[in-house]
Protein 1
Amino acid sequence: MIKITLVGAGGKMGLRLTDNFLKNPQYDVRYLEINKQGIERLQQKNITISTQKEAVPTADVVILGVPDITIGAISAEIIPQMKPGALVITLDPAAPLDGIIYHRDDLGYVIAHPCHPGIFNWEPTEEAFRDFYGGISAKQSIVVALMHGNEDYYKLGEKISQDMYAPIKNTHRITLEQMAILEPAMVETLSQTAMEVIKEGYDRIIELGVPETAARDFVLGHLRIQIAVLFKEVNGTFSDAAYKISKRAKPILFKDDWKKIFEMEDIKQQVKDIVK
């Protein structure tokens, strides 16, 4: 039985992983949490919280489910206590790319991040359809990268990642740098920011008197078909007028050099802003 220690088990991401580990008796999991609210959440699930001293030195795998701004200091405290040959799993590429994860040559390091259920992910039940984060009942894909170590570390990290993010659609093996291109560059720096601007526009049209129910149906409906067209979910195109107005709007809304956010030099700066 694989011994796993989950650090930050009562946090936002840690709690989701905890729920899935409770469904997997193949793992012997120890749960670490120091935040008072996190401890209370775990206690509500009848989970016994372990101590670092008892849980880390015996673990085959340590999962660092803690925020980016604290993971450097926590890894420097936890990882020196791990037994040789064990595996470290982190959940986000920011800290590893910035080099702040404590490193030991005799350990393996794997990064695993969820893609979350896709916009066009069909689910048979209302519960699954509304599992927006994934990890409960909606299928989602994951990306996994080997940062340090041999293939055995990757295979173990991939298997654990599939179980802790289940149910899984696809598992994509990529590099650390490719994962950082996806996040933060693509889905946070670009996509989330663009969606925040769209939401600001939505709020503005309501201020201008458009009925909120009409605005919500109109905007969300158009977003869905626009994404479907652009990502080839349907065999269709926009109207000539729509193409004309988007051509006019792009230089108004975006700087000419906006794609520099995907250059590794800029991504490394994005990462530094995240972890500081």
Protein 2
Amino acid sequence: MQIRVSFLRRIGFGLSIVALVGVVALVELGCSSKPDDAKTEQALVQKKLEPFELDYPSMRARIFTPYCVGCHGERSRVNLATYENIRQNLAAIERVTLIEKSMPKNAKLTEEELSRLGEWLAMGAPESKTQSQELPTPLPSEQPVEVVAAKFSSIKKLVIDQKCVSCHSAGGSASGVNLTSYRELMGSPRELVIAGNPDESGLMIALTRTDSKRMPPPKNTEALDAPTIEVIRQWIDQGALND
């Protein structure tokens, strides 16, 4: 009987040792993950503390990379992946971020980001600090930005001619719906524009739908922004005049 009790005590002691080793291992494992988590958190804090300089590297790190290039990369019609591409779109960047405030679509720039971006654009969008001191002339985007008005002449110039007629014209891939003139638009058998009734006008339906038949086509370009669509709606609601 004593031998059996002693044997059981040895087994119990052995199990205690195994359990203790397991607990120590778990504690060590938990502790070993803390430095990595701390480093990640420290990196995020450091990024927020980085100076917001008025040059391209800072604008790229603080605005274009986190907010823009996910959608406006090299395969996008509006490419903002490089400084050269951004220089080609300065007027549009100013319009959609500072005037219309329709971009970024899925986020909102802080007041500081808007202010610094505006300053950078006003300086001529310098690539470096040195360049900012060498730019004697204002950048093109300082010129008044033409905004779409509820007039056919404005809608044709800023929307139809830029986003539609490449397909919707004689010889285009969608020549059956010709949008090259007021007469073609208003005389379309598809009832593209019903004066005074934007909700039943084919043009508004095409611009606001969310499936693959949306216009402009999703595979070719992004949808018109909400302010532009609202202007077109107003033009139709006010009688769709040829002005």
Protein 3
Amino acid sequence: MNKNKLILIVVLLVLGIFFIVTTCYRSGGKTKVVLPPGTHGVIVSEVIQTSNYTYLQVQENDAKFWIAVVSREAKPGDSVYYSKASEMKNFSSRELGRTFPSIFFVDDPTDKFIPIAATPQDLTPKKVKIVRWSEISVETPKGGISIAELYKNKNSYAGKTVIIRGKVVRYNHEVMQKNWVHIQDGTDFSDKFDLTVTTMDSLAVGSTATFKGIIRLDKDFGSGYFYDVIMEEAKASDIK
């Protein structure tokens, strides 16, 4: 065997091993894929569409469970990859008339996994399109204001501590050493219905809480992440 043939055989063997290790494949409804720690790869088995969310029953290895993502096209057999999710136990959907014993609200679903090295920008509280939840009606707390009132008179509340009660519609844990919460109370002003809150308290998507924090205007965290109104250093109470 000459040297060139030997080199070719070695190259083909290396490529074959690489292909086996890195190729994604399905067997018996299970996802077999090399993923970094903290990243999940699931196969969709059932799809339920609602006005705000797409509910997916999925399978990961031998585990079968439910996840929810912002409304998107999906069908059984699809692959979904994610790394950021918050579990909500005994979550009741009024629109479905159904209670899920456990469901994970996923922040970063994708149908294509692309391994990319983490960068500082990956850790920032990325601004995403927030969907308005239907059937939310949260009573304004005593001594507090509504989200509509805040946006209507935001300049008068700048730098002041205010109280707002709302339902948690999105939650990111320990980003930039704090938790990031999006709340809605069913009110709006000029189509602004969602308030971003930073807090050290842990909350679950779907829960309702009263937040007491400082209102900041035109807050720029860099990397293009700018908030015209945000509540910071908030304390959460009366969580239900």
